[in-house]
């Protein structure tokens, strides 16, 4: 397990250590990352589809996933509400020029990961024979993905020092991590896993392509599916609640999006909360994107 954790973390840190200035290369990396994400998710679905006794385990997986989503939601929102009470943010007025079409497109795009997993699941269950190299292929694809994401984080034009100095974004990230780990502690007797594995499950912060494969590789495809669904549902729920709460409690809206606040949910945060929310969302999302693989790697290495 320790070796696996180091394999997860090493490419991320290696990519983060390299500086690139070629814009065309960075654009190519962006498209390669997107393709790798869907490829990895399809492999996750393939593993689920070829899992022995899949149909009999679907009910248990649904219950575990629902419990994880609900407990994390309550813990995260409670922690972020306390942060709002302590250090309230005042967002700008909503951008009146922003329409609903962009929001609908984002919401529909959030369903694409589910479709990728579903395609892999159906292929594995009905069409493809068992592929013994699929797990190894998924692991190496994840290594490449983390290396490329490290490059993206380093070359996104963001100063780590400035991000850490954004006290609101830092506070949101710290509260989301702390409340997620507290939720994980509460879930230990419920999920029936060792404490470190439950804390790893709670450390996805919305990064579904990472958590699904990492957890699946360590705990099996069923738990990988639970981790994936938990984190993709965080993204979908965030899209639904951001317009409802960002006007009165911006920290709750930005924070629940987790790692997605710096990319996928950022347009919704910008259009509903104004420009003042953007640096806070980028700071919190960046820090959570960096902490998620670190925490999952550390917790899984304890097994």
From TrEMBL:
Keyword Membrane assigned: yes
GO CC term, one of those recorded: plasma membrane
Classification lineage: Bacteria, Pseudomonadati, Pseudomonadota, Gammaproteobacteria, Pseudomonadales
Protein name as it appears in the record: Uncharacterized membrane protein YbjE, DUF340 family
Residues spanning the membrane: 29-49, 61-83, 103-128, 140-158, 170-191, 236-259, 280-302
Domain of life: Bacteria
Molecular function in Gene Ontology: L-lysine efflux transmembrane transporter activity
InterPro entries from the UniProt entry: LysO
Keywords: Membrane, Transmembrane, Transmembrane helix
Keyword Transmembrane helix: yes
